[in-house]
UniProtKB/TrEMBL annotation:
CDD domains: TCP1_beta. NCBIfam families: chap_CCT_beta, thermosome_beta. GO terms for cellular component: chaperonin-containing T-complex. Keywords: ATP-binding, Chaperone, Cytoplasm, Nucleotide-binding. Molecular chaperone; assists the folding of proteins upon ATP hydrolysis. Known to play a role, in vitro, in the folding of actin and tubulin. It comes from Gossypium darwinii (Darwin's cotton). This is CCT-beta. GO terms for molecular function: ATP binding; ATP hydrolysis activity; ATP-dependent protein folding chaperone; unfolded protein binding.
């Protein structure tokens, strides 16, 4: 007994076999959870929070599902992390990366049971991943010289990304929106310039792309409804000090007339401030905080459009897009950068009035207005569109494109298999296992579509032994189809990220041989 008392009471450790079991089981459970969302016929999950408000999220996006899970198993946490990183890095392939890592571990479990050392498996996986990446590199298509072709590549990628999401019904429409928005960015991956506004009502087909910037606010009373060649001052300052605030101040006076004097002084202060602001030679003033009636009146008299209470996102983005800076002091007008745009007007979307800034400084800015039946639909549409935008903006920089639909996995699997045959020693088992894990992705895509996966994947494998074959799984007709004709493409960058992250995550979990859970600190009674 005495030996075991190294760790504290509540701490526990799992050694060797049991630790590895625990991590394999956790990782595989996570994989099985998200793998039904893979592919064009993947299903969605409903995530319901048990907190206040019982929010419900309906989503198909791997990263969103995993982010919302509270999980105890350490290995599962590693998988959740890689899907998050995949989401931040390239935006799409969040489900694939988890599925691939999980399948690698599932294969590793069999190898460990066959008495192959984890380190051997890891070095085999390393070789296999390198080989798979080279196989992809040889088969990439790069159309960056030919603008027409490249644009159609982008359309295909967008449609492939969207086809596993809720937008798949109108995927041409949304792919067009996404491609237009990304083409305006001219190669920067800064998605800040693309603003997405969600307005319930109408149907998904009514969504549209608008050049310029839309601020979700109404125009104040008695103010000009449209302004041409606007000079905009974006500010974050308090414009509500023209009345004495009864709560905040204690003033001792001996008669009411004194209070009036104080109020007069406050009003003067406000008037001075407004004068300073007008001194910038602007005709539109956007403020983050409240603007009271008195200053608003002054602005209206000067024919200036004052917008109050713009939300913070809106304001930062507005400053970015119009090329201004957010100001908070107005003493030296020459140092403040004003924003510019050609036209400010009020537009109606559904029931709401919004302010539309068009012809902004930053030419790449645009706004996508999503319409849809309910908030859940809109949220999911936004996530799907965000995935598409991320992938496209990455592709504009790294123009290499692959076919989709399980084709890249089969190409990699074929090469990796050949490597396994050439490699002597126990490593070859690990390399072969890697190829099995890759084949699992087309298998799952077929399974989710309710097809006979064993049959289809065997056909695919046979097809891929011919040179220059474009075969992949066509879930719509339920057979092996030509991916080039069907226009199913994916970005090379996404596939590469999936491959490398999954391998590294699997490697990390394989290296574990002991899990030590430490005891929570006891709270002392402070009596």
């Amino acid at each position: 007994m005495a030996i075991e008392k190294i760790l504290k009471d509540d701490a526990s450790e799992e050694k060797g076999e049991r630790a590895r079991m625990a991590s394999f089981v956790g990782a595989i459970a996570i994989t099985d959870l998200v793998k039904t969302t893979l592919g064009p016929k993947g299903m969605d999950k409903i995530l319901q929070s048990t907190g206040r408000g019982n929010e419900v999220t309906v989503t198909n996006d791997g990263a969103t599902i995993l982010k919302s899970l509270h999980i105890d198993n350490p290995a599962a946490k590693v998988l959740i992390d890689i899907s998050k990183v995949q989401d931040d890095e390239v935006g799409d392939g969040t489900t694939s990366v988890v599925v691939l890592a999980g399948e690698l571990l599932r294969e590793a479990e069999k190898l460990v049971a066959a008495k192959i050392h984890p380190m051997t498996i890891i070095s085999g996986y390393r070789m296999a991943a390198e080989c798979a990446r080279n196989a992809l590199l040889q088969r990439v298509v790069d159309n960056k010289e030919n603008a027409e072709k490249f644009k159609s590549d982008l359309m295909k990628i967008a449609m492939t990304t969207l086809s596993s999401k809720i937008l798949s019904q109108d995927k041409e429409h949304f792919a067009q929106l996404a491609v237009d928005a990304v083409m305006r960015l001219k190669g920067s991956t800064n998605l800040e310039a693309i603003q997405i506004i969600k307005k319930p009502g109408g149907s998904l087909k009514d969504s549209f792309l608008d050049e310029g910037f839309i601020l979700d606010k109404k125009i104040g009373l008695g103010q000009p409804k449209r302004i041409e060649n606007a000079k905009i001052l974006v500010a974050n300052t308090a414009m509500d000090t023209d009345k004495v605030k009864i709560y905040g101040a204690r003033v001792r006076v001996d008669s009411m007339s004194k209070v009036a004097e104080i109020e007069g002084a406050e009003k003067e202060k406000m008037r001075e401030k407004v004068k300073k602001i007008l001194g910038h030679g602007i005709n539109c003033f956007v403020n983050r905080q409240l603007i009271y009636n008195f200053p608003e009146e002054l602005f209206a008299d000067a024919g200036i459009l004052a917008i109050e209470h713009a939300d913070f996102d809106g304001i930062e983005r507005l400053a970015l897009v119009t090329g201004g800076e957010i100001a908070s002091t107005f003493d030296n007008p020459e140092s403040v950068k004003l924003g510019h745009c050609k036209l400010i007007e009020e537009i109606m979307i559904g029931e709401d009035k919004l302010i539309h800034f068009s012809g902004v400084e930053m030419g790449q800015a645009c706004t996508i207005v999503l319409r849809g039946a309910s908030h859940h639909v809109l949220d999911e549409a936004e996530r799907s569109l965000h995935d598409a935008l991320c992938v496209l903006s990455q592709t504009v920089n790294d123009t290499r494109v692959l076919l989709g639909g399980g084709w890249p996995e089969m190409v990699m699997a074929k090469e990796v298999d050949e490597l396994a045959r050439k490699t002597p020693g126990k490593k070859s088992h690990a390399i072969e296992a890697f190829s099995h894990a890759l084949v699992a992705i087309p298998t799952i895509i077929a399974d989710n579509a309710g097809l006979d996966s064993a049959d289809l994947v065997a056909k695919l494998r046979a097809e891929h032994h011919k040179e220059g074959c474009n075969a992949g799984i066509d879930v719509i007709s339920g057979s092996v189809g030509d991916m080039a004709e069907l226009g199913i493409s994916e970005a090379f960058k996404v596939k590469q990220a999936v491959l490398l992250s999954a391998t590294e995550a699997a490697e990390m979990i394989l290296r574990v041989d002991e899990i030590i859970t430490c005891a929570p600190r006891k709270r002392e009674d402070r009596m």
